[in-house]
Amino acid sequence: MPETDQTANNDPADGGNGPREQFNLATVSEVVAAAVPDREALIFGDVRLTFAQLAERTRRLASYLHSQGLGAHLERGDLQPHESGQDHLALYLYNGNEYIEGMLGAYKARVAPFNVNYRYVQEELRYLLTDADTKAVIYHATFAPALSEVLDELPEVKVLIQVADDSGNDLLPGAVDYETVLATSDPAGPPVTPSPDDLYIVYTGGTTGMPKGVLWRQDDIFMNAMGGKEIGTWIQVNSYDEVTERAKTGWLRLMALPPLMHGAAQWASFMMLNGGSTVIIPTARNLDPSEIWKTVEAEGVMTMAVVGDAMARPLLEEYKRGDYNASSLFAIGNGGAPLSAAIKEELMDAIPNLIINDSLGSSESGAQASHVSSKDSVQTGKFEPGPGADVISEDLSSILPAGHEGIGWLAQGGSVPLGYLGDAAKTAKTFPTVEGNRYSVPGDRAIKREDGAIDLLGRDSQCINSGGEKIFVEEVEMAIVSHPEVADVLVCGRPSERWGAEVVAVVELTPDASVTEDALSAHASEYISRYKLPKAWVFVDQVRRSPSGKADYRWAKEMAADTLN
User: Fold this and answer.
1) CATH classification code of 390-466
2) Are strands 408-413 and 500-509 parallel, antiparallel or unpaired?
3) pTM value?
4) In the Cβ-directed half-sphere of 139, how many Cα atoms lie within 13 Å?
5) Domain residues of the chain, as ranges?
6) CATH for the stretch 468-562
7) Do the bridges between strand 469-472 and strand 463-466 make them parallel or antiparallel, or are there none, so unpaired?
8) Model pLDDT for residues 188-209, shown as the tens digit of each residue
9) CA 445, CA 439: separation in Å to the nearest integer?
10) Closest CA to 164 of 183, 184, 139, 147
């Protein structure tokens, strides 16, 4: 049953406009299923699930998890922000309907699921599952050998659920088959009442440090990034009755291209599902542009979620090569990495009436700001802030006024995470109180323009101090990648006797490219000051990114260091 607690939602940092119901993701799912039971919810290859079928399958999974003693053991009021009172379920999965089912099934049992990067090697996997205090794992059979290598050191893991695939791997000792679990468990669900305080956990990518588990109250993540507010208009849902009415008019068909282990893909998918719309999941385990465009045509995909040029460029190239009907597609949503103006322009030239929406956010902030590019108005890096998004002073003491000349910290107020799992110190540092309100300050630098718009400069940890000047790598990357013969680029710093640190560009060129370093420098100098230009260029066959398209800056720094001599 829906939680009907009211909360005074009058915090201007959250765009609040009076009391509203508190939401949890389990109940939202059931409310939507009751409103549109026969509408398609999930499509994954030959698997097609209506909202009613999805609801029943997730209730069955919840029944099994509850039967194994998993659930919530301490309520939020008895815990510190960095603590969890729930059992944690690892989702060690490729894309598939099982990922969404795993999340919803866990929520309905008051278990907190979390994402596992399926590219992790043994030591990384051991670290993550230990850090998360894992009690259960749902995993594809192909990962059984890797999981078996670390289980002896994880005595707290009590439940193993194996999803069959084409690997042919047998069940691990003590494991149960996923479909058998669903077929033999109670379709009514467990006798528990989910709470708005139940956790949504997303682990950071760990591309610049060790991954950390970000703890959100479900009400906060729903309001921030999973359908409680409409991105762009920021119109808020205030009751479960409104969820029902909105679901009845749901009509979109989304295909999210990043892996579901990536927060942005989860948010886009749940935003659609919680609004009664349909989510199509690509079947290929790596980006397959041909499959994507064939699916767009076959399923009438209306909107697509991508992560930066690393995804958009190969999609564009395949679309130009092939003969695809993309007439249903009217919007592309981008988040997690910059999408260059040049690629946007080419996409909108190729697909009539297409709009591209850039969303700004992070695991620690949720959705913060957006910008829509159309045929006549293309822009990258400048965002219109949503409720609570702001720029805070260098010393974290005040909110900067519009037009302030200095660089500040990008911040998010209102519905923000509780903290980092098990890390009180980092929680206090990342979520300070400023002018009486609690903010999330993950480490991005920004400028607040006179008109209130926010210019994103980039993550402070990737800022290069060269000759006393601060250089933000994303700005340099955008200047370089706009060259038509550059397929991808990462920019990093390396030690320099003269400059302290020097800018290095690690570049992947397009096939048959003939551009020189001098030509790339000349091109980039049209967009950025000369002191920001790379002092060295490293050319590679392929720039390394995560499956979600996120930059691997540790790798880039290794490549830059290897060429120092």
Assistant:
1) 2.30.38.10
2) unpaired
3) 0.87
4) 27
5) 6-248, 390-466, 468-562
6) 3.30.300.30
7) antiparallel
8) 999 999 999 999 999 987 555 6
9) 15
10) 139
